[in-house]
Specification:
The chain is built from twelve helices and 16 strands. It is α/β, with parallel strands linked by helices. Helix 1 crosses helix 2 and helix 11 packs across helix 12.
Length: 385
């Protein structure tokens, strides 16, 4: 079985271009009999999310397939992370590849654009790490496999005040992105509601590399913490430049950096420019888990890929498994019946757990707090919903 899993994992990694350099396509082997096709869309560089999705597909095929039919994952990597490209991919997957469901995208700004496509065609869609609550507003065919930013923002605010005893914070946000603006707003709102003070609130354009102006304004306010809502490369530059100023609180101590799930990336920890030691951030999943099902997932992943799964990999695995369980309960490929069973999900246990879905198709699930120590992400605590 181990050799079979390794073989399947190698097949997943054979990427071919799908019409342009910024999109990579991943296709599992075709089968002679009727095959059920699942679409998978992910955006960004060096993403490993397809590995989690493919693990779920391999597992179901080893068990004889879904409703007795083999499953094929048709995945695309939108390397340049352009939302319009994700929309084009989704349309092609639905119309030309005739997928039975769509998994992803991983970014909220992409998911909110793709969701109306799935809704219009009546195709069940389960996002992976898209966390802004607005991604499901397109309609009842759109579900989330991750927690929402309203929950994640509140978790970080509560942790900052209760566990770190911090009452003043600044916020630095990438402007114009649904995720970055949303998570900053939810954090700041919850922080104020809990009695904290936001002493500076700065924004920057997505293509900026010099954050001196914003950080100088923040330094003047001497915050105890700085919540950085951006993506990996920005976080590395911001933390480096902040330490160079240096950014300190009123007592002359280094301001603590805080973040959300966009920090859960090896790109950040491997970046020599990043100054993230001692930071805290929220995430979806800890590979240090002792929960049996999650532990089995981690062990299998590490044996295949010789690396540790991130939260995005775990949630991608879960999104596919959620779909499979809904189809099996429905005993049908009818989209409406699958949608109804997704909505009826209760006590799902996978790499992560979902207690149930609310009326907005947002899951009830836990979040994890991480810290960065000795240049590595370490589990700090788990927060129940």
């Amino acid at each position: 079985m181990h050799k079979f899993l390794v073989l399947m994992s190698l097949i997943v990694l054979l990427l071919t271009h799908a019409g342009c350099d910024r999109v990579q396509k991943i296709v599992t082997p075709k089968h002679e009999q009727k095959t059920l096709k699942i679409g998978f869309v992910v955006a960004g560089e060096r993403v490993t999310y397809p590995n989690g999705a493919e693990m779920a597909v391999t597992e179901i095929n080893q068990r004889g397939g879904l409703l007795g039919m083999p499953v094929e994952l048709i995945g695309h990597i939108n390397k340049e992370a352009i939302p319009e490209v994700s929309v084009q991919i989704a349309e092609t997957l639905i119309v030309e590849d005739e997928i039975i469901a769509l998994i992803g995208p991983n970014r909220s700004s992409h998911a909110v654009e793709v969701a109306p496509i799935a809704q219009r065609h009546g195709i069940p869609m389960i996002t992976t790490t898209a966390t802004n609550p607005n991604v499901t507003t397109a309609g009842d065919f759109v579900f989330m496999a991750s927690f929402t930013d309203s929950f994640q923002g509140a978790v970080m605010a509560q942790f900052t005040i209760d566990d770190l005893n911090i009452t003043t914070a600044a916020v630095l946000t990438q402007k114009g992105d649904l995720y970055t603006e949303g998570i900053s707003e939810f954090f700041a709102r919850s922080f104020r509601k809990l009695g904290g003070e936001i002493v500076a609130n700065e924004f920057y354009e997505g293509d900026l590399s010099d954050f001196t102006a914003q950080l100088t304004n923040i330094a003047a306010a001497k915050p105890d913490a700085l919540f950085i809502s951006g993506f990996t490369l920005d976080i590395a530059l911001i933390t480096q430049q902040a330490r160079a100023i240096p950014l300190q609180n009123a007592d002359g101590e280094p301001t603590i950096f805080l973040g959300a799930d966009s920090w859960d990336s090896e790109l950040l920890y491997d970046n020599e420019d990043a100054e993230v030691e001692g930071s805290f951030f929220s995430g979806h999943f800890s590979p240090e888990t002792d929960e049996p099902t999650a532990r089995a997932f981690v062990d299998a992943y590490e044996s295949i890929y010789e690396s540790t799964p991130t939260g995005g990999v775990a949630v991608s695995y879960d999104a596919v498994k959620l779909l499979f369980e809904a189809v099996e309960r429905a005993g049908s490929l009818d989209p409406d019946e699958i949608r109804e069973q997704l909505a009826a999900t209760e006590n799902y246990i996978g790499a992560t757990d979902i207690a149930s879905y609310d009326e907005n198709r947002h899951p009830t699930k836990s979040a994890v707090i991480f810290t960065i120590k000795d240049g590595k992400k370490q589990f700090h605590k788990q927060i129940a919903p």
